[in-house]
Amino acid sequence: MNYQTSTPAESGTPLSTDATHPTDTTWMNDSSPAGPRTGRLIVLTGPAGVGKGTVEAKLRADHPEIWLSVSATTRAPRPGEVDGVNYHFVTEEEFLAEERSGRFLETAVVHGMAHYGTPLQPVLDHLDAHVPTILEIDLQGARRVKERAAELGMEVVTVFLAPPSFDELVRRLVGRGTETEEQRNRRLETARVELAAESEFDVVIVNDDVDRAAGELWSVIAREYGIKA
Length: 229
Ligand code: 5GP
Description:
By secondary structure, the protein is α/β, with parallel strands linked by helices. It has one domain (12-225): 3-Layer(aba) Sandwich (Rossmann fold), CATH 3.40.50.300. The protein contains eight helices and nine strands. It has a five-stranded parallel β-sheet with strand order 2-7-1-8-9, sandwiched between helices. Strands 4-3-6-5 form a four-stranded mixed β-sheet.
């Protein structure tokens, strides 16, 4: 499985910077991944149902120079989702083989159902090219990236997207009304635990309004990459 769908130059505009780019790239392969990297990895995380995907879509619509990592997943594609664009849709066997060979930055089983993972090499390539690079992943994955940052020579900024209130998160989560009482209670419990994680992350953005939240996220990225916002 080749996760490299586009080169950094195709997928985002390298920004002019006075940071020095390492010329020796041998450390980029899987066996010697130690840094230092020039760009900072932005990790967008938050509770299920908070609207990470919507905020991220608005951000990228406004700032196409941002590169969003394409995750691998074992879940089935939803109508309209395109392999290699929304996700790399893989079998469990393929996923586990990639995981064993160390090709993921992080992996997690989300909702106890499907495997999700961030392919490592494209992230390193985009950071090295100084393309603003963002992951949109769950809380377990964000914790894992923080743990591995030093080992990989990456600087990471974790952004927690929070709902305006617990009640609002509940409303978004159970709004569809299709779940059983047991599923509903499990989701509420998960929401409670996930909201309590807020303090673990570097920046908190409240998703009270998608445009405003996306603007705030852009300010974080612009600051980290030395772009005039
Ligand atoms: P969905 O299946 O609805 O697209 O995503 C479900 C959840 O998985 C979302 O919270 C999303 O942020 C998270 N997710 C997507 N890709 C990854 C990944 O590569 N790693 C981790 N840890 N979570 C991911």
